[in-house]
């Protein structure tokens, strides 16, 4: 049987989730809802549907009480053992797994999945498991890979594959020159034997840093410290998928992921999508509306909209390509496009919220989302998804375009291309 | 009183309205209709002026134009009949400036000894034509100019005059404050003025008035009440607000009262307004306009036959004839739609100037001209 370990603090820096601000200022990023469910719940759901999964472990640096309720809800929903293991400092993906190796190894699982907290996609977990377990020579780690464009590949971990055996011949993280357009998806399946390998590396680093202060010495990155050396030894494999895959690093990418996850519901979770009906709002395309949300029948929603718990959508409101989080009110006749509206916010009447999508180039096969910096070369804000943080108040009849409004702010006028602190 | 309420003792006066050229500053509206016929507060601009002239005793109006005006001739012929006056056109082969056209129309203007009016076609105000005649006959000199107070006189030419009204001089765009009274574009002249003008391009401000003032023959009369030159969209809208305010002060019955109306609003009886709208303050809605449910309109002119679809929000706009503005549209910042423009649903137009028969499918985030 199997386990899965979800690494919730995927970045190396100690300030986790800063690129996801302001949405991560009040809520841990893994709990941010996309298509109606917290990001990490999509992972849990994918794992829980693999038969023989015995336990799901969430590893992270967030204080335990921030995730307590969520874990309880997940156990109740999926009827599977789930635990949150809090790191005492940010340990990096490999460091975290190594630190909690006893918990992961307990019960002698045959293998365990590892997922980076900020990846999203249509994960073929059963397929990668089958691939891993049917290999003639055992794999310490099998990586899920996908194809990227030549240009974008250098922003990810690049995998050079032996086309016949699918062994990884070479691995390098974010090279400065082109190596391969097969990239690391941040989803792995590992044999428990990998801990021995990680232990060797850990110990050798301890010796090296023994006279320095201990901050940061225990941080071991799976990609640089484990995969790179294992590549070429015949113990690492890659499983390539062409199903949808992306990362959620910025709030803008949440809109993109929202759209794709909503689309995935058609396959197995069709009941989550809103349908048209008498006394119901008009729905175009894929829309998720939380059962406790109130939406006026004269509203027009979709495509690609998620409306959160207890949200209130007024008469004649138009929402498209947006995420409306819980407890938020959008008053009558307003128009919300390409926007994330944070929890507990109020948007007045006849107001327009609009952002600019930063989707991958649809004309380029395998194109991924571009990592557009916040500011352009002239120091101006690059057009992006409009984001309202938690508890923001927007008056009636104003326009908010390509702007980021921090939590608890009460706007008094229209804003365009600005960050409102 | 007599026919049409005009004072017959004033005799058969004449008026010349300086229409001039193509009205380029009021494009894109003037690409479809000659400027004098663009409806201001639901009535062609020139008709506001003509009706006021008629009430002051004018029986013949000459429109000085520098391009062929068949459309105007046709439409105004009907109005002329209704009002019982003659409207003729004086066509300048080459543009004659602000004074030349007066000479060109000499045969009509000087056909008797009565003084005649000359007005700039872009002026809207509480027309003081009757008072002008009184004052002019009182001082008995050659010319009377109406002056009006403005907030920023250095943008214009100011008029310096004494307590009797006798004009001393004009100062063009003064750097320091000398006066806040400017030429309001309305004059009365005795026919003798024609001796001072030649039939060539001539500026009345530069080549006629200074000499008249030097001879002590030019007097200023202060205008009370609102005044606006509505030759460009921003001022057109400001003028509309002033006009509506004046309506309120004088004749409130014209203003529209209904559900969702705020402040001064003028609505043609054939227009239809939906539910849950907020119309006003300062809105004029023309004939056959359809406003759907949940629309909010502030400080706008909506011309004949336009449709504003539901949940849209408009502020500071001129929506041209027969336009269709989609649902959930936001337009602001002196956006002007020419005739028959379509704005698709859910767009944002910020200061967009759209030429006729255009369909807009993308937002206009910063002021721009859309051809």
UniProtKB/TrEMBL annotation, chain A:
An example of a Pfam family matching this protein is: NTP_transferase
Report the GO molecular function annotations: transferase activity
Q: Which domain of life is it from?
A: Eukaryota
UniProt domain Mannose-1-phosphate guanyltransferase C-terminal: residue ranges: 283-420
Give every Nucleotidyl transferase domain span.
17-198
Q: Family, per the entry?
A: Belongs to the transferase hexapeptide repeat family.
PANTHER family (alphabetical): SUGAR-1-PHOSPHATE GUANYL TRANSFERASE (PTHR22572)
Protein name according to UniProt: Nucleotidyl transferase domain-containing protein
UniProtKB/TrEMBL annotation, chain B:
**InterPro entries named in the record:** GMPPB_C, GMPPB_N, Hexapep_transf_CS, Mannose-1P_guanyltransferase, NTP_transferase_dom, Nucleotide-diphossugar_trans
Record keywords: GTP-binding, Nucleotide-binding, Nucleotidyltransferase, Transferase
Q: Where's the Mannose-1-phosphate guanyltransferase C-terminal domain?
A: 261-370
List the residue ranges forming a coiled coil, or say none.
none
**Broad enzyme group:** transferase
Report which superkingdom the organism of origin falls in: Eukaryota
Biological process terms in GO annotation:
GDP-mannose biosynthetic process
Matches recorded under Pfam families = GMPPB_C (PF25087), NTP_transferase (PF00483)
Q: Where is the Nucleotidyl transferase domain?
A: 14-241
The answer to whether keyword Nucleotide-binding applies is yes
- The EC number(s) this enzyme carries: 2.7.7.13
Pathway listed: Nucleotide-sugar biosynthesis; GDP-alpha-D-mannose biosynthesis; GDP-alpha-D-mannose from alpha-D-mannose 1-phosphate (GTP route): step 1/1
Recall the GO molecular function terms of this protein's record. GTP binding; mannose-1-phosphate guanylyltransferase (GTP) activity
Q: Is the Manganese keyword given for this protein?
A: no
Query: Can you tell me which family this protein belongs to?
Result: Belongs to the transferase hexapeptide repeat family.
Q: What's the protein called, per UniProt?
A: mannose-1-phosphate guanylyltransferase
State the organism named in the record: Cherax quadricarinatus (Australian red claw crayfish)
